[in-house]
Design a protein that fits this description.
261 residues, alpha/beta, 6-stranded mixed beta sheet, two-stranded antiparallel ribbon, 14% strand, globular
C-alpha cells in the first residue's frame, strides 16, 4: 500500500488541492494508502480510526511531516450516532467537506451459516452496511454545497457470494454495491445517472464512486476491470463520459474534466 501511494504521488491533480476528504477506517491498509495519496495531492485529510490508535497517529504524523493537513478522529462506526459524529466533527474542523470515503469494514470472524447468531448478524451489518448509509446521510448536506463525491469500498465477495465462513460479510458488501448504484441515481440532478467505478486496490476490495454531478456518468465494463484493474492501478486514474464505457486515462485529462464539471 505504501508503494501504491508513492506511485500515485507522481500523479498531480490540482483540483484536489485544498479539498477536505474524510476516510473512515484509515489507520491501516487501503484507508491509509488513500490518506497518503490524497494528502500528496494537497487535500486536507480526515483520518478516522477505531481501535488502531497507534498506526493512525503514526500516519497522521507522517502526513504532517510532509507538510499536509490532517484531522485525526476516533469512533466506532458500528455504533448508532458515532458515524454521524465523525462526519460532523471532521466537516466542522475543516469548515467544509468535499469527499467521503466509506472504507471502514471487516469480516468479524469466519462463521458457517449454522452458527450465525442475531448478535453476529447485527455486528457485521452495522459495521459494513449501516455505517455507509449513516455516513452518506450525514455527509450529504456538506457535499451538496460544493459538489463533492463519495467513494464506497466494497469487495469481490459482493459478486461471488464469499465462502469459507464469509457469506454474511459478502452479503453486507452486496448491500454496499447496490446502495451505491441507487445513491448515484439520487445524486444526479436528472435522476438518471448510474455511476460505478471499480478499481482493484488489492486482490479483493474494490471501490464505487458517487459523484455529485450528472456529468460523471457512465456504464462501466466491470467484468473486464475485475480481472485486469489491479495490473493497471499505477497507469492512471479513471475518467468517464456519457454514453461511453469508463476508461483509464491520463491525469491531465481527468483534471480537465473535473475542472469543467
Amino acid at each position: 500500500m505504501v508503494e501504491l501511494a508513492q506511485s500515485l504521488a507522481s500523479i498531480k491533480l490540482p483540483d484536489l488541492s485544498g479539498k477536505a476528504v474524510l476516510i473512515t477506517g484509515a489507520s491501516t491498509g487501503i484507508g491509509a494508502a488513500l490518506a497518503r495519496a490524497f494528502a500528496a495531492q494537497g487535500a486536507k485529510v480526515g483520518v478516522h480510526y477505531n481501535a488502531s490508535r497507534e498506526p493512525a497517529e503514526k500516519l497522521a504524523g507522517e502526513i504532517r511531516a510532509a507538510g499536509g493537513t490532517v484531522h485525526l478522529i476516533q469512533g466506532d462506526v458500528s455504533r448508532e450516532g458515532e458515524t454521524e459524529r465523525v462526519v460532523e466533527e471532521t466537516a466542522k474542523t475543516f469548515g467544509h467537506l468535499d469527499g467521503l470515503i466509506n472504507n471502514a469494514g471487516g469480516m468479524l470472524g469466519r462463521k458457517p451459516t449454522s452458527e450465525y447468531t442475531d448478535a453476529h448478524y447485527a455486528a457485521v451489518m452495522d459495521l459494513n452496511a449501516r455505517s455507509v448509509l449513516a455516513a452518506t446521510r450525514a455527509a450529504h448536506p456538506w457535499l451538496k454545497k460544493q459538489g463533492g463525491f463519495i467513494i464506497n469500498t466494497t469487495s469481490i465477495a459482493a459478486r461471488n457470494g464469499g465462502g469459507n465462513g464469509a457469506i454474511l460479510y459478502a452479503a453486507s458488501k452486496g448491500f454496499v454495491s447496490t446502495i451505491t448504484r441507487g445513491h448515484a441515481k439520487d445524486s444526479s440532478p436528472t435522476g438518471s445517472a448510474s455511476t460505478r467505478w471499480r478499481r482493484a486496490l488489492s486482490r479483493h476490495p474494490s471501490t464505487s464512486v458517487i459523484p455529485m454531478t450528472s456529468r460523471w456518468s457512465c456504464s462501466a465494463n466491470r467484468s473486464r476491470w475485475a480481472s485486469s484493474a489491479h495490473r493497471r492501478i499505477a497507469s492512471g486514474p479513471i475518467s468517464s463520459s456519457p454514453r461511453r464505457r469508463c476508461r483509464v486515462t491520463s491525469p491531465a485529462r481527468l483534471s480537465r474534466s473535473m475542472a469543467d464539471s
